[in-house]
Specification:
With 272 residues, the chain is mostly helical. Helices cover 86% and strands 0% of the residues. It contains 12 helices and no strands. Helix 1 runs antiparallel to helix 12.
């Protein structure tokens, strides 16, 4: 019994460790690409093009580093909250709509093309309309972040729901179970890997949605920092904000990945 319980935990911990190591390698690769980009395009110049050492100095060693770091991280918490709002809104909407489409083929055939058509509209183009309708508060963040998260998550979750073993669905149907029962007992458990895959893809998208909504809508958080730093030629702040956004996205991706490894190992499903 103890070995049976410990086995999935060990496998989950191993998968989580491998994921964290791969993400650490990704951070190193990002720094290498960053430096290579500045070397490949010397016309960018040291005034605009900041190096990793410049950003490190801005955040940790300059005389005003503490103030710079405090301001940036104060904005980060706002952006993380906005990211959470958009992520939860988009994922919940995607799960609900995917379940409805799975239960009703006519609904899927009618509304799926419309959903994909809406996805093709650039978010920047509809931002003024969104802010006019819902204002510049949390509702704006939820709508804009939810839009970015919703569509890719919907497609992946629907694929997962459709991948439920047919034999289990037939058994449930033979015992008088409804389509809703089949969805709850067969389709949803089978879609857990797809749900986590959608979450991993959606977390960076939610961060982008939060930044865009702050830039164009709420004027708060790191999006506002980018908006204010660019015209003011505050390039240290600009690059530091981009670094914080990038690292935060990677960390959030890692958190979801660790949760995925632990949950799927607990379910007896291996992660790649």
């Amino acid at each position: 019994m103890t070995a049976a319980i410990a086995g999935p935990r060990i496998r989950g911990a191993g998968s989580a460790t491998r994921l964290l190591l791969s993400l650490l390698g990704s951070l190193v690769l990002i720094v290498v690409i960053w430096v290579a980009f500045l070397l490949a395009f010397p016309d960018v110049g040291p005034i605009i093009g900041r190096t990793p050492l410049d950003v490190f100095a801005y955040l940790f060693t300059d005389p005003d580093a503490a103030a710079n770091r405090g301001d940036l991280f104060d904005r980060l918490w706002i952006t993380l909250a906005d990211t959470g709002i958009g992520f939860v809104t988009g994922m919940v909407a995607a799960i609900v709509v995917a379940a409805v489409f799975t239960l009703s083929r006519p609904a899927a055939q009618t509304f799926m093309p419309l959903a994909m058509l809406m996805r093709s509209v650039p978010l920047v183009a509809v931002t003024p309309l969104i802010t006019m309708i819902v204002g510049r508060g949390p509702a704006c963040v939820a709508v804009m972040g939810g839009i970015i998260v919703f569509f890719p998550a919907l497609v992946m979750i629907m694929t997962g729901l459709a991948g439920a073993p047919r034999q289990i669905a037939d058994v449930i149907s033979a015992y008088g179970g409804s389509r809703t029962t089949t969805l709850r007992l067969a389709s949803l458990p089978a879609a857990v890997p797809s749900l986590f895959a959608a979450a991993k893809i959606s977390v960076p998208g939610a961060m982008i949605g939060a930044t865009v909504s702050e830039w164009l809508g709420t004027n708060k958080g790191l999006g506002a920092s980018l908006q204010q730093a660019l015209p003011a030629a505050a390039y240290d702040e600009l690059w530091a904000s981009v670094v914080v956004i990038t690292v935060s996205s990677i960390v959030l991706y890692a958190v979801v990945g660790v949760c995925e490894a632990l949950v799927l190992s607990r379910m007896g499903t291996a992660t790649s």
